[in-house]
Design goal:
The chain is α+β, with helices and mostly antiparallel strands. The chain has nine helices and eleven strands.
């Protein structure tokens, strides 16, 4: 969960490098831990990633590292950095900011874990301020022996630079209101992606996947309809063949279904 954003007031709170160093000293390591002997290990300096993200207009909004008295863990251990861009957000039809993309880097310099890069859409889902990761928008996880630092930066750039287009597309969806008939037909076509057969969905099945889990998703826009249908189809729990549908756990099934849902929503936007 990110606490760095006040959604309603459109405020991003950044933290200074000095504060980051106090909270997560391993961010500023200038070489790998002395325990790493492999010549294949590619050092990825987190502080240079921060500088690179800041050059692209992103603010450092959070850092985290477990407290430790062990020098190896303190100076080279696992740490997390979070970034948001002040000009990238999704507004609902009432003009209020409902969601923001966030970029997260999880790294270590002691060889304990691969480097992990996450991009997700974080949404304010209720009045008490709960913020959840709602959409995965381009994550990867790789060993430190696979890429040079420059190759990693190029891969990050490719994903981050495409984020603006994705946010623009979702913003369009968030402003497109749908009729009850359009929402029903969207759900029919979406459910067909999961059924993977010629069977026509039953009315009770369609209505069940249109049942929003959160108040924020009760709005009849393409964006909120997409979120509702996607969550139900992926997480299961709706009525299918007169029994409760299972959650989709297979990553390939998950990817194929999400890709199909995205293309379906994009078709409805035009």
């Amino acid at each position: 969960m990110s606490k760095a954003t006040n959604f309603k007031n459109n405020v991003i709170t950044s933290i200074s490098l000095e504060t980051a160093k106090d909270l997560a000293p391993a961010i500023f390591a200038t070489s790998p831990a002395p325990t790493i002997k492999s010549p294949k290990y590619q050092f990825t300096p987190t502080f240079e990633v921060i500088e690179h993200m800041q050059d692209m207009g992103y603010a450092l909004t959070g850092v985290k590292q477990s407290k430790s008295n062990v020098e190896l863990r303190k100076n080279w251990g696992i740490h997390i950095t979070r970034f948001q861009h002040p000009d990238l957000y999704i507004k609902n039809p009432q003009g209020e900011i409902e969601a923001r993309p966030e970029v997260v880097l999880i790294n270590s310099h002691d060889g304990t874990r691969p480097i992990q890069f996450e991009m997700g859409m974080f949404r304010l889902v209720c009045e008490n301020g709960l913020v959840i990761k709602d959409q995965d928008m381009g994550s990867f996880r790789e060993r430190h022996t696979k890429y040079t630092f420059q190759e990693l930066k190029d891969l990050m750039d490719q994903k981050v630079l495409g984020l603006k287009d994705v946010v623009g597309k979702i913003s369009q969806w968030a402003q497109k209101e749908m009729t009850d008939k359009e929402r029903y037909q969207f759900a029919v076509e979406a459910l067909a992606l999961r059924l993977s057969s010629d069977r026509q969905p039953e009315q009770y099945e369609v209505m069940d996947i249109l049942n929003a889990k959160r108040t924020v998703d009760e709005q009849p826009t393409l964006w909120h309809t997409f979120n509702t249908v996607q969550e139900n189809l992926i997480k299961g729990g709706f009525q299918l063949n007169n029994r409760q549908a299972r959650a989709i756990k297979n990553p390939i099934e998950d990817f194929v279904l999400n890709q199909g849902l995205w293309q379906l929503a994009d078709a409805y936007a035009n």
